[in-house]
């Protein structure tokens, strides 16, 4: 296996491949930063340009794009609360409050370094599990995916400590929205009010652009001023301060990377779940959970580590069985096909060097993009000093046009506007957006997997007790539900002693 | 005016959600049993949670207990800005979105940017003009030229 | 049925197109939207993405052909959008038959009538289906499956109730006297085939091109093929099973345009599409996933639809459950 790894690196370390890797990295960074564009658009545009290239070079270019997109998304998530892609929305939760405190440079530096380290840890994990990739993908069927969705929802709901009731309401609201559209199991169209646009439900990326970017711009428009008023803090931003914070919180980085690696490897789950789950678990594990959402640097490190770790691992279901984890992977599969590489079990046997080359390209691009992010941290943080009267209409225009550009559908603009107002109301009336977003992502999949499990087991719920992975997940669910009780009991005697 | 010691306006968010959920629930019962197997129970649970939320907003002992155990960190927003500022911000967004749909990107964006800078931001005419022109040009360059994306022409100009 | 199709129709159309080309020299002058009513990443999507760049080469003017995935509503939204688009040659779409007919019936003709679509050509030869189980399945032969069905319904993984695979599964199992229960809701062929491998269900009926790579990697075992003359050594085909009707269960992929497309533009598109499908790059790539490109005229495409629709109409009551 080592010789395959080395062949992969060797193939990449040629002038032409490195050039295309760098080009892909630059494009990924740029596309990742613009809300609504992202890696899928970049890959779709590049695919025709790769016709004359040999497969290895095409993969270097694609890896360059995919590795850099998360860093691009982090930049706008932190500076403008405008997630460049869906997974970056989790970075908004603490990244933008840091920018508002004049610490955008710190947040960008932490994001860049967490990105790079998360990507490296993700790569090492994937290299280790690639030989058993097929078996891993086959471990997760509808029962496991349903319980995973339940686990994800509970993690996120219990993370909104201090606001659990409102968190649960936001979560169930998100679930209701997720049920809009065509139901794959029954073939029924639900809650569409006859609107064709809603046949495939509320589109996620336009909704997130609204919930975060547009809502924040409404907020800024009402408050006035700039994102931050602390010009002095922005001026003394050090490139290395963010880097040091990441090393200080190494446990958060490792946790986030492992969450990203595991979630990314599960077919059909996607990066948004990885980043939000990593964030929520970090909140749960923290001694100061109430500080999250107000500019806790761990709230930036956790999702960023997860996002890049998942980039490598979500290649597993894509390459092993042709099951794309998201739109970006689906477009990437199209590029593979054009170069005669058909995703499937045979690809893992016949094209190992190419696969390892791709993994190294992803990692290299991620590290390069992170360096660039570190380098640009201070100049970019000056964007937070721009007056809202100029910033708000500019960001609104980019957000709404970017939302249209997702799939050239004007309905996206309406969704973004509606979710923008909804997001603003949620900020004003103190309902957490985190639980709603995760429920929106997981709801439809949870329902589909539940129905499929019922069909598999003829409605017998004991199926969940007869599968090993399900048992592990059930234990996790029970532990999460019971943990707050133990915490409360632990605090009570201490309070008694204090008295 | 107050109800159980709380201004009526403070109940509005929960009541708004309850209205949406009730409509959702009623609609779910028009579908087959399998199709509503998930949506209906979720809607019922939401209504129950909203009921708890409504009680938690009251100044009663039950409300206090729910707040202490389930919502200790939640806050009721203070009226830090006049209502018209919030409405104005939402209206600008709504008008811009509708304009995009009706007259397209290349007309709506410069108009919105100019109007926002001039009338909301109170910038000078010339400043508003050149910023709008530069921003629109940059968007056109990025989406139409670099990405070769056909910018939406607007419903009135042939858009679908 | 496939052998009866000749190249005569194609040559006639190409000739007509050549003369009409001179008359309509403006078209096309902007991007052409190529609607794919399927999720990205599947075989259907891949074929369109292989054809699209070649199509750009053979159009009279340099424009982009932009694949546009619109999988909502089981594909109904994409087909509806194609149907309602302006008949100006700037929107075409790939449609799978007979899945789309099943869809039209289920959704009450929601917004489209496939009989009114302007058919341009077919995208490769039709595909047969075959029946497989996971490599670790205790079922070794078709007889095992049929024996199992006497004790309980056999569970087949499949797409939603609008897909061609769903139709193939319902009809195929009826012809083979297998009592069936479907596990639906998978997103695409890769998904439901993997579902069978994983053991979600007992078996799967999928296009030959979907199962063959899995067979080669030893993750799947094929128990029967619906081909009239089998290409899996040692596996019974439709003739050996005494069920020639199995050979009429086909997956066809056709390319169409909105109703009332002007004849001149129809001829240009049809000719360009056929040239694109004969392009060596397209042929080579399509061969990699076992699709054989075969030029055809619009008339031949319509004839294929009529045959297919007639066969599936016989099974309407089973499919609409």
Largest pleated sheet of chain C:
5 strands, mixed
Domains of chain C (count): 2
Topology-level CATH name of the largest domain in chain C: D-Maltodextrin-Binding Protein, domain 2
* Low-confidence sequence ranges of chain B: none
Structure notes:
The complex is a heterotrimer of chains A (499), B (160) and C (321). With 499 residues, chain A is an all-alpha fold. Chain A has one domain (2-466). Chain A has 23 helices and two strands. A two-stranded antiparallel sheet of chain A has the order 1-2. In chain A, a hairpin with a 6-residue loop joins strand 1 and strand 2. In chain A, helix 2 (15-33) runs parallel beside helix 4 (55-80). The longest helix of chain A has 31 residues, at 468-498. Chain B starts with a strand and ends in a 14-residue tail after the last helix. Chain B folds into two domains: 2-70; 83-157, no CATH class. Chain B has six helices and two strands, in the order ββαααααα. Chain B is mostly helical. Chain C is α/β, with parallel strands linked by helices and 321 residues long. Chain C has two domains: 2-126 and 251-319, D-Maltodextrin-Binding Protein, domain 2 (3-Layer(aba) Sandwich); 129-248, D-Maltodextrin-Binding Protein, domain 2 (3-Layer(aba) Sandwich). Chain C contains twelve helices and ten strands. Chain C has helices at residues 8-23, 43-58, 76-84, 99-106, 142-151, 164-175, 189-198, 208-216, 263-278, 280-288, 298-313, 316-319; strands at residues 32-36, 65-69, 91-97, 118-122, 129-134, 154-159, 180-186, 203-207, 220-225, 252-257. A five-stranded mixed beta sheet of chain C has the order 2-1-3-10-4, sandwiched between helices. A five-stranded mixed beta sheet of chain C has the order 7-6-8-5-9, with helices on both faces. The longest helix of chain C is centred in the first third of the chain and has 16 residues, at 8-23. Chain C is globular, with a radius of gyration of 20 Å. Residues 1-6 and 19-23 of chain C have low confidence and may be disordered.
């Amino acid at each position: 296996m080592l010789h395959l790894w080395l062949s992969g690196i060797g193939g990449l370390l040629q002038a032409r491949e490195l050039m295309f890797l760098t080009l892909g990295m630059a494009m990924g960074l740029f596309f990742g930063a613009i809300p609504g564009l992202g890696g899928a658009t970049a890959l779709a545009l590049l695919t025709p340009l790769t016709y004359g290239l040999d497969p290895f070079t095409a993969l270097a270019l694609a890896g360059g794009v995919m590795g850099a997109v998360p860093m691009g998304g982090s930049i706008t998530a932190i500076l403008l609360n405008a997630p460049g892609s869906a997974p970056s929305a989790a970075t908004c939760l603490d990244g933008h409050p840091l920018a508002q405190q004049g610490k955008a440079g710190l947040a960008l530096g932490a994001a860049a370094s967490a990105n790079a380290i998360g990507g490296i840890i993700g790569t090492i994990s994937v290299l280790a599990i690639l030989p058993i990739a097929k078996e891993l993908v086959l471990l997760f069927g509808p029962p496991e995916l349903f319980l995973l969705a339940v686990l994800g929802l509970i993690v996120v709901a219990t993370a909104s400590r201090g606001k659990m009731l409102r968190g649960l309401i936001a979560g169930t609201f998100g679930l209701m929205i997720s049920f809009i559209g065509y139901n794959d199991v029954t073939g029924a169209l639900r809650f569409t009010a006859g609107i064709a646009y809603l046949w495939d439900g509320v589109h996620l990326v336009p909704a997130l652009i609204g919930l975060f970017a547009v809502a924040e711009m409404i907020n800024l428009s009402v408050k006035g001023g700039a994102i931050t008023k602390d010009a002095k803090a922005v001026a003394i931003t050090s490139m290395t301060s963010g880097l040091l914070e990441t090393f200080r919180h190494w446990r958060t980085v490792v946790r986030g990377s492992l969450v990203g690696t595991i979630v990314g490897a599960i077919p059909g789950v996607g990066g948004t779940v990885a980043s939000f789950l990593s964030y929520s678990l970090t909140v749960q594990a923290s001694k100061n959970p109430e500080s999250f959402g107000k500019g806790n640097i761990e709230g930036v490190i956790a999702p960023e580590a997860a996002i890049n770790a998942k980039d490598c691992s979500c290649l597993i279901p894509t390459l092993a069985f042709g099951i794309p984890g998201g739109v970006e992977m689906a477009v990437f599969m199209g590029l593979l096909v054009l170069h005669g590489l058909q995703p499937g079990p045979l690809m893992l046997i016949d094209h190992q060097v190419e696969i390892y080359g791709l993994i190294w390209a992803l990692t290299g691009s991620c590290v390069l993009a992170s360096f660039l992010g570190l380098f640009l941290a201070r100049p970019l943080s000056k964007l937070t000093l721009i007056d809202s009267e100029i910033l708000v209409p500019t960001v609104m225009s980019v957000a709404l046009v970017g939302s249209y550009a997702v799939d050239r559908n004007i309905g996206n603009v309406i969704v973004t506007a509606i979710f923008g107002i909804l997001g603003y109301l949620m900020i004003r009336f103190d309902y957490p957006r985190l639980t709603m977003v995760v429920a929106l992502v997981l709801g439809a999949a949870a329902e589909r997997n539940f129905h499929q499990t019922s069909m598999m087991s003829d409605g017998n719920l004991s199926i969940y007790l007869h599968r090993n992975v399900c048992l592990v997940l059930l234990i996790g669910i029970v532990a999460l539900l019971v943990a707050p009780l133990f915490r409360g009991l632990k605090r009570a005697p201490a309070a008694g002693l204090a008295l | 005016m107050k109800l159980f010691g709380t201004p009526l306006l403070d109940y509005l968010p929960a009541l708004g959600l309850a209205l949406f959920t009730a409509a959702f629930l009623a609609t779910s019962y028009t579908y087959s049993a399998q199709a509503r197997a998930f949506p209906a129970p979720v809607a019922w649970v939401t209504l129950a949670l909203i009921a708890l939320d409504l009680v938690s907003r009251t100044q009663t002992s039950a409300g206090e207990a729910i707040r202490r155990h389930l919502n200790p960190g939640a806050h009721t927003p203070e009226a830090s800005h006049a209502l018209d500022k919030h409405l104005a911000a939402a209206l600008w967004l709504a008008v811009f979105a509708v304009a995009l749909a009706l007259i397209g990107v290349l007309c709506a964006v410069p108009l919105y940017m100019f109007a926002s800078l001039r009338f909301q931001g109170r910038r000078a005419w010339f400043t508003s003009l050149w910023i709008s022109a530069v921003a629109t040009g940059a968007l056109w360059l990025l989406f139409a030229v670099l990405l070769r994306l056909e910018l939406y022409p607007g419903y009135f100009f042939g858009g679908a | 049925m496939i052998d009866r199709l000749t190249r005569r129709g194609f040559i006639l159309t190409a000739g007509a197109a050549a003369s009409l080309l001179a008359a309509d020299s403006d078209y096309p002058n902007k991007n052409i939207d190529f609607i794919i009513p399927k999720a990205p990443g599947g075989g259907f999507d891949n074929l369109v993405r292989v054809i699209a760049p070649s199509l750009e080469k053979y159009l009279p003017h340099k424009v982009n052909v932009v694949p546009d995935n619109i999988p909502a509503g089981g594909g109904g939204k994409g087909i509806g959008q194609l149907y309602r688009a302006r008949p100006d040659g700037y929107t075409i779409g790939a449609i799978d038959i007979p899945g789309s007919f099943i869809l039209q019936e289920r959704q009450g003709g929601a917004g489209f009538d496939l009989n009114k679509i302007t058919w341009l050509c077919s995208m490769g030869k039709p595909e047969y289906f075959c029946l497989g189980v996971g490599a670790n399945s205790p079922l070794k032969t078709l007889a095992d499956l049929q024996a199992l069905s006497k004790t309980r319904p056999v569970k087949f993984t499949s797409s939603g109730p609008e897909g061609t695979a769903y139709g193939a599964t319902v009809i195929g199992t009826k012809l083979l006297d297998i009592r069936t229960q479907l596990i639906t809701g998978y997103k695409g062929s890769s998904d439901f085939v993997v579902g069978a491998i994983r053991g979600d269900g007992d078996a799967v009926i999928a296009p030959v091109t979907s199962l063959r790579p899995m067979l080669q990697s030893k993750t799947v075992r094929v128990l029967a093929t619906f081909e009239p003359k089998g290409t899996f050594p040692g596996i019974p085909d439709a003739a050996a099973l005494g069920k020639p009707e199995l050979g009429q269960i086909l997956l066809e992929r056709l390319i169409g345009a909105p109703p009332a497309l002007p004849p001149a533009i129809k001829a240009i598109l049809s000719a360009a599409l056929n040239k694109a499908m004969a392009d060596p790059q397209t042929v080579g790539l399509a061969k990699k996933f076992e699709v054989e490109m075969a030029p055809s005229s619009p008339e031949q495409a319509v004839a294929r639809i009529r045959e297919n629709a007639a066969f599936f109409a016989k099974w309407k009551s089973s499919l609409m459950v």
